[in-house]
Amino acid sequence: MISMLLVGMSVLTSCVKDEAKNKECDITSAWVQGDEYAMYFQDKNQMRKSDISSSETEIVFTVRSLLSLPKQLPLFLDVTPGATVEPANGSMQDFTAGPVTYTVTSEDGEWKRQYKVVFREPILPSFKFGFENVEVVEFRATRSSYHSFYEVLSNGQRHNVWDSGNSGAVLALGIDQTPDAFPTKSVDDGYKGKAVCLQTISAGSLGAMMNKPIAAGNLFLGKFIVEKIMTPLKSTQFGTPIDREPVRVTGYYKYRPGNKFTDMEMKEIAGRTDEASIYAVFYKNKDAEGNDYYIYGDDVEDFTKLASNPNVYKIAQVKQLPATDQWTRFEMFFEGKDADNKEVADNKFNLALVFSSSKDGAKFEGAIGSTLYVDEVEISFEKND
Description:
By secondary structure, the chain is mostly beta strands. Helices cover 9% and strands 37% of the residues.
């Protein structure tokens, strides 16, 4: 079983399957070179993207303003050994008109992979989310596919602000799986149009071997880091930049807990009923030394401890989500300390918004079959709204 896990991890970290080095075709880092371009970024750290995940197909640089960005910027790339890239490494490109597609070809010429490189202002595309935009992601190594949610900017460009654990669940579920088998998926019968369906599922024999027997359905603003799947609480990087201070979050949900609540050894805990979770965190995205800062799954295990985190300013949490088969409105208010208005306007804060079908799913405790539906979510900013 251990050998199966190692093989599975190597699948995730190569282009298509477990390949020799001369068949790899990944971009591992990307950067804009030249001090004269630093003025277009909030700080120099944002000029480089390092440790790019092998599951990424989009590389996003955050800039102060697209209107002031030069029409030509030099982008440099590190690629896997022997691979080549088109457009040429270091060539000048116009990123103001939209994404630029880079194609990486393996050393032996047999494998290709495309990345979209995007320069974007640090704003959410909307503060109302109907979850209508869904892509079917094909994972060719296991002939499986799953759903990925995204938003659309006013100029029509795609904005990947949402992520889930689907890319990590793809190994546990085996081969020839359709989106319906995954813990996070789209459904057609939402409160309006489509909705998100989050379901706690069995992680199979692979998960049981690692004492990670269940996979809770989740959706969050942020990024799932596949390479950290062996330390799951560090694989969920919560938060995306926001330029205003939130007051409340509203939306609609349906929830039905599974029949049997179990611990991480799949032992039933008698008398305990699974609970869904909806919460949000407004936090500063730089640490005391000015480095980028994020919160992860282990940071939100204890909300009392989270509230004492110096980077965290406000937390909102739905205290109870009673089981219901009818679409029911939820509402949660942010509580904590106020942020400096100038720092907020300068995009020095992130917002994490998280939905999960099992409240303690990160501890691998919950009930298989617990199902949470979410739709028509809205973030509000007026205190008298």
